[in-house]
Amino acid sequence: MRASLAWLFFALGAAVPSVAVLVVAVRAASTESARVREEQLAERVAVAQATKRDVEAALARAKETLRRLEPAAVSRLESRLMAEKPAFADVVVMGAEGQMLVPKPMTDEPPSPPQCLADRAELLKGDRTAARNRIVGGCPHLKSEQGRYLWPLLALERVAEGTTPADVVASWIGEHAARLGAAERAVLRARVAPLPEGVRGAALRALDGPLPLHRTLAGLLTEPPGSDPLEAGLRVHRGRYLSLVRPMPEGGAAGFVVHEASMLGAPGLPAHLVLAAGARGDATDVALTPDLVVHVEPRDGATLDAEARRSGHRILAVGVAGVLTAVVLATVLFARARKAQRLAELRTDFVAAVSHELRTPLASVRMLSELLEAGELRDDERPEVDRILAGEARRLSATVERMLRFGALARGRLSVQKSRVPASCILEDARDRFRKAHPDKELVVDAPEALEMHVDPGLVALVLDNLLSNAAKYAAEGHPYRIEARCDGHHALLSVSDSGPGIAARARRRIFSPFERADDRLSRATEGTGVGLSLVRGIARAHGGDAFVKSTVGVGSTFVVRFPMEGA
């Protein structure tokens, strides 16, 4: 009970600082993760600010380039501007009538034959099915009067009917995607949804590709030139895009256009960071105009987030490892301290028990000796007194012998004098000694006549006396006891059995240690020194054998001592 309370108090004492350290470790891990995320954010803010400075410096250089620009042919203007353009801008050259000369538009497709135009008219007022089939069969470039392609829409109708392969439509989209406007792309994205997965994926990848630069800029530069203010001879537009354009004396204009697509494709950022579309509303934004804002973000945000978590987990792991190490060390030290304390208590009990075992027979011897000395005994009482004195003397001798043997064993100096002895003689002698000490208890002996043992008879007798004495003390109601000798291969086995209370499993691991007992509560009610079983195992090992116990709680115990046969 005291041991359980001691361990309980130790557990409570260790739990409080352990939990406190773990709480600190969890907070430190959270703080570390937050610190890493703050560092990542600070890096993106620094990159955004550097990008803003680079953009402003590049735009200032671009303005100087345009101010020094001399009128020239379109090709020369394009070459000059391409050589000195900012990395995040595109070159644009406009004609005198406002048409875009650079970037060059895509080459026109051949005009549709008259028959295709006739079939287009037939779609609205004649045999639509026949006209549709002829258009799908021979008019891949046919457009509506509004300038939108008719072929893919009509071909998709035939795909739904099963008369045109789906991959034919996907192939057409891949070839013509660069010529499709944003509205046409949106319609076709919806229409290709029912196509088989592989074909649909190819078509969607083509439709999601970038628009040709000419088409992109043409879609942006929709505001009339007069709406752009002049700044030192340059027309500057700030809206969905930023343009720096110098009007040419003979008409037209040339300059640079910065838009979302050109910003996102600009180089110069660290490999793990990219510019992304839209504004975040924080310091990672890079704003060129109120409507043209991009921001800096990780190329792989999940990886950076995982890195922040790992950094926190490392702190937590170190804290947990430290707590576990401290708890293990404290537990080991506490266990050793408890063991030392218990050993000290057992040694104290041992001294008290030895003193008691010596004091009782000594007291009897002294009292009877004083009676003899005083001549106070009658002649008819002398035989009984002599018998008691002899018994007490033998008891003293056995106790002292046991202590001497244990001392020699503890010092490693136990001397073994072996001789060949019949096992039955050893067991019968042990039975006779047990009957004299315990006439009220029954003992059964089982030993084959032919079995001989090569042992020290005196030490083996001490082994059997100890085991039988323990049986009488701890299994008082467990008789008849049984002692048995048998041959097991190269060993002779002596066993002492009882049908007493048995020994718990946790006690069986320690009862052969000095000063240990099977049941402390039961042991306190019985006399003994706590070295008997230690002496039994020591004697067995001194012969080259061993001792062990088999026991079932509530059924009984069997102590087995193994001795090697001669020549084994």
From TrEMBL:
InterPro entries (alphabetical): HATPase_C_sf, HATPase_dom, His_kinase_dom, HisK_dim/P_dom, HisK_dim/P_sf, Sensor_HK_Regulatory, Sig_transdc_His_kin-like_C
GO molecular function per UniProt: kinase activity
Record keywords, A-Z: Kinase, Membrane, Phosphoprotein, Transferase, Transmembrane, Transmembrane helix, Two-component regulatory system
The protein's Enzyme Commission number: 2.7.13.3
Highest rank taxon of the organism: Bacteria
Record domain Histidine kinase: where: 353-567
Residues spanning the membrane: 315-335
Catalytic activity: ATP + protein L-histidine = ADP + protein N-phospho-L-histidine
Cross-referenced Pfam families: HATPase_c, HisKA
Signal peptide: none
Protein name: histidine kinase
